[in-house]
Amino acid sequence: MLAAGSSALALYFARRVITPARFRDADQEVLAVIREGRGLQVILAATPDATVDGVYGFFFDGGRGHARIGRILSYSPAERTVLREVETVYSGDISTARRGWWSGAAYPDPAAIGLSADDVLIDVEGGTAPAWLVRAVPATEDTVSDVWAIMVHGRGASRQEGLRAVRTARDLGMPSLLISYRNDGLAPSASDGRYGLGSTEWRDVEAAIDFALEQGAREVVLFGWSMGGAICLQTADLSRHRQLIRAMVLDAPVINWVNVLAHHAELNRIPSSVGRYGQLMLSHPLGRRLTGLAAPVDLKAMDWVSRAVELRTPTLIVHSVDDEYVPYGPSAELAEKNPEMVTFESFNTARHTKEWNVDPERWERQVMAWLRQQLAPRVNPGDQEPAAGQSTPG
Q1: Which of these, 125, 253, 351, 382, is most buried using a 10 Å CB contact count?
Q2: Both 81 and 214 in a single domain?
């Protein structure tokens, strides 16, 4: 009986990891909305998300409403409430909202950050995937227009997630392609309706690279958040275009799924042995009938701590030490094992994928400085000027 119960729990855990959620959990309570002059303020239940300063998105009314929530004005631990500024309401009536969910997606679309975008369709398996194309400013001496940025959102998120990086890419002269991919609600679903945790989704990023190349790109920079980071790593490993990936910027990426799954088993008070059984169901061919996966997920192939020396694409990892969802340890370890290719920048206080939200200026400054180095014109050895005191061979 105990064994049967453990098997059922392991299967539940495994299926939850790979099955897209149809509805978001409205776990943030709204206690009151106050009009202050021309602006609005909101009193929220003091959740771990709502008590971290910064700028965030708040979705309500089943996702039809979207507001940008700003700084903390007051916080009462005793009453378990927090008062925050409402910077903008993009859609819906927040004064009638009672519950919603917190998000790092502070903006709904490119127009909200003052940029125009083209709605484009990318040919993928099973149909076409919508994307936003934000074109670059005209190239100058300091910018590069033939390198495109491709933004890859995380599990359960949307292309809105990448809007936080678009201005930085644009300041470097890069057009930005904010993509959708299988099972995210915009792109066609996979045939099995299951996440591949990066093992299948990378093909949609490859299709986005195809699109960029057809539009004149010569190289790309991949940006990835959370599972989007795992997808980017798989793309850099498996894509026929991997030599054209100039660099990657990964925010709170999944570097090692075994580590993440063990963390979530612990969070959900699932015994470690049951959690490992769930991992086996995902990765073993015999588990497909139970999980619904069309093919097993090779978790070992996506363990980039073990494969550190195989990563040959220059990569910047931004990850908060306070990330509650994807532990930062593997990110730091990957950088330690492959310092030639991987640069690690740690943040504090930010929750999962919300490093930009906590400190936009620092995030943009660090990403800009690192990318500027990566995008600098490559110098051929024969073109280098001789050092002082050296003569050219005659």
Answers
A1: 253
A2: no
Encoded amino acid at 14, one letter: A
Could you tell me if residue 216 is left (phi over 0), alpha (psi between -120 and 50 degrees) or otherwise beta? left
The pTM for the full model equals 0.93
> For the CA atoms of the chain, what is the radius of gyration?
22
Which residue range is the domain that position 126 belongs to?
A: 110-374
| 385 domain residue, yes or no | no
- Cα(325)–Cα(259) distance, integer angstroms: 11
- Count CA within 13 A, CB hemisphere, residue 136: 25
Give me the residue label for tokens 């709904």.
108
Query: CA 84, 89, 90 angle in degrees (round to 5)?
Result: 145
Beta strands in the chain (DSSP E): 28-36, 39-45, 56-60, 65-76, 81-91, 99-103, 118-124, 127-134, 147-152, 176-179, 219-225, 245-251, 315-320, 342-347
What are 288-314's pLDDT values in tens digits? Answer: 888 999 999 999 999 999 999 999 999
Structure-block tokens of residue 303: 């363990």
Which two three-digit tokens encode residue 132?
Answer: 């936003």
* 62 and 184 fall within a common domain: no
DSSP state of 368: H
Domains in the chain, number:
2
Cβ atoms within 10 Å, residue 179: 29
| Three-state secondary structure call for residue 324 | coil
Whether residue 115 sits in one domain with residue 47: no
- Exposure on the CB side of residue 197, measured as CA atoms within 13 A: 25
Copy the structure tokens of residue 57. 């998105």
Q: What residues are paired with 342 via a beta bridge?
A: 315
Residue 284 identity: H
- Angstrom distance (rounded) from CA 246 to CA 257: 25
Determine the Cα–Cα distance for residues 364 and 93; give it in Å rounded to an integer.
Answer: 32
8 lies in a domain?
no
